[in-house]
């Protein structure tokens, strides 16, 4: 199944915030509408949503959650690899002060051994790359907790030695990497969607090339955005 082009809402990736995309029928492009300025209450609700969603304990690089705020009502959308994230996201938003209604349109990706293989193969291709692995900060050791992460990859930015990712690491079926990853990988029916932000156009292209090199995929939709100066 082809992953459609996205309508960007706001970014939830650690480096980038929240984004999502929705299916759009092939229709003539409508005339641009004036953008409504969000109210102070909407901005406060949105900030609290970002903070809450970033702290979901099982949110990882194989998930993508987006949201829209209209007054005191919130719409959640996107895809999650693990169903627990769908309910957890709704519970987080419902507890935020000022929110009166939550429309949960998050889709749980169907179970598929073939898609699981592709997820991990694309993850390894991107996060073992010499230039792209700096966009991932996995947690080393379960005892460190969700936010007790350590940096990895080559030595840069004064962080000192970083242990590299082991491409032969064995994983449990249904598991996904724990940590913070700027590039998210959504797989459905053999098709790959790449989302998030990177610092250069070269990195955006390199991530797509890494994904396309994985055998068995039906195509790649590259929705990564370039945000310089991060």
Note down, in words, how this protein is organized.
By secondary structure, the protein is an alpha/beta fold. The protein has a domain at 113-226. The chain is built from four helices and nine strands, in the order αββαββαββββαβ. The protein has helices at residues 40-54, 84-94, 113-127, 201-212; strands spanning 64-70, 73-80, 101-104, 107-108, 136-138, 179-181, 183-188, 191-198, 219-226. The strands form three sheets. Strands 1, 2, 3 and 4 form a four-stranded mixed beta sheet that branches. Strand 2, helix 2 (84-94) and strand 3 form a beta-alpha-beta unit. Helix 3 (113-127) crosses helix 4. The longest helix has 15 residues, at 40-54. The two termini are 34 Å apart.
* Biggest sheet descriptor: 4 strands, mixed
Number of helices: 4
Order of helices and strands: HEEHEEHEEEEHE
Provide the low-confidence segments as ranges. 1-26, 141-173
Terminal Cα separation, in Å?
A: 34 Å
| Helix vs. strand class | alpha/beta
Q: Count the E strands.
A: 9
State which percent range the strand residues make up.
Answer: 15-25%
Average pLDDT confidence is 76
In helices, the fraction of residues equals: 10-25%
Radius of gyration over all CA atoms, rounded: 18 Å
Assembly state: single chain
Global morphology: globular
